[in-house]
Amino acid sequence: MLWGFLEGLLGHTCPGCGGKLDAPLLCSTCRQGLKAFAAGEMVYLGLYGRVGGMVRALKYGRRFGLAPLLAEPLAEAVLAQGWGLSGVTAIPTLLPRLVVRGYNPPELLGRILAARLGLPYLRVLRRARYTPSQPTRGRARRRLPEDLFVPVLRVEGSWLLVDDVLTSGATFFRAKEALLKAGANRVYGVFLAVRDPGALGPYR
Where is the signal peptide (predicted)? Predict the structure, then answer.
């Protein structure tokens, strides 16, 4: 098929397992293995060691077509929780990063999730400060400013907050605080990957 020829020509392999693609974007085995998990007030696709390749392909490889595939099991898991959500938003990025990359992966995923869930998607938060990426630092070393995110809209009800990777929980915690300040009475999280399983519990 044409897609197979083109992806082969580009040197693409399956971002899930690194093997040969027998279907567009993600091999049939990895497609069948997609399943989301729930932990308290969070839903995630898997630990980074298992799904990190798919995250990197979406985040850095510009393989946008992966987003609907990955959103499907996440949406199913969210619906199963019965959270009674009012809307969906995502962790925002700074404008320079958005200009360089051309898109914000959490927002791309959030918009698809909102459509699957039949909910509105709104840009409720703005990122007010730059912080360096700290993907491998433990929770004890991540101290982010309280005003990292600021609300730009008023909301109400329960909201779904989307990010691509949960590392220490610090970024999500600051965004959750800002979303509560915006008027949400409860905030739930959705992630593609989790680096530190300990961050799935209440963050301190």
Answer: none
Considering the entire predicted model, what is its pTM?
Answer: 0.87
How many angstroms separate the CA atoms of 63 and 69, rounded?
A: 11
Is 132 in the same domain as 57? yes
3-state helix, strand, coil split of the chain in percent (to 5) is: 40, 20, 40
E strands along the chain, which residues? Answer: 37-39, 42-47, 85-90, 125-127, 149-151, 158-166, 186-194
Residue 22 to residues 1, 32, 63, 93, Cα–Cα distance (Å): 10, 13, 16, 34
**What domain range includes position 92?**
35-200
**Residue among 18, 24, 26 at smallest CA distance from 45:** 26
Asked if residues 85 and 117 have their Cβ atoms less than 8 Å apart, the reply is yes
Closest CA to 169 of 187, 151, 150: 187
Q: Which residues pair with 126 in a beta bridge?
A: 150
Count structural domains, the chain: 2
